[in-house]
Amino acid sequence: MLDAVIITVSVTALLLAAWCGFAAYRDSPTKDWHFAAMAVVTLVTLVQLVISVVQLGRGERPEQGLAVFLAYQIGAACTIPAAAFMSLVERTRWGSAIVAAGGIILAVLELRLHEIWGNAHG
């Protein structure tokens, strides 16, 4: 797994979390701009998914097991879309808080993906 991709996903997820956390603090639900940002984070996460599939196709394997890696990778790809859906259902400040939590969760999943893949692969 490329470190640059993991850093990019983590940073965009944390920026989204901060922005939506601030919206929740201001008692504001998610707005169109928040959904655009969620789309960007999701796109970056899908790029990561494609890169990992290519690396797996080339024969590279995660140090801590393929099944665990795939479970975390799929979970990472689904985190922000799930938070977006829940924020649509909860059109209050708590919808923004859900997306903020989703961004933090995604950043933590990225750290774990890095550990699962292992440093030896670069």
Could you give a quick summary of the protein structure above?
It is built from four helices and no strands.
Main sheet attributes: strand count, strand direction, barrel closure:
none
The whole-number mean of residue pLDDT values reads: 93
| Class by SSE composition | mainly alpha
First-residue to last-residue Cα separation: 6 Å
Global morphology:
elongated
Q: Count every helix, treating DSSP H or I runs of 4 or more residues as helices.
A: 4
Low-confidence sequence ranges = none
Number of strands: 0
Order of helices and strands: HHHH
Task: State the helicity in percent bands.
Answer: over 70%
Give the percentage of residues in beta strands: under 5%
**C-alpha-based Rg, rounded:** 15 Å
Structure description:
- The chain has 122 residues and is mainly alpha-helical.
- It has helices spanning 3-25, 32-57, 66-89, 93-117.
- 80% of the residues lie in helices and 0% in strands.
- The protein has 4 helices and no strands.
- The model has no long low-confidence stretch (mean pLDDT 93).
- The longest helix is centred in the middle third of the chain and has 26 residues, at 32-57.
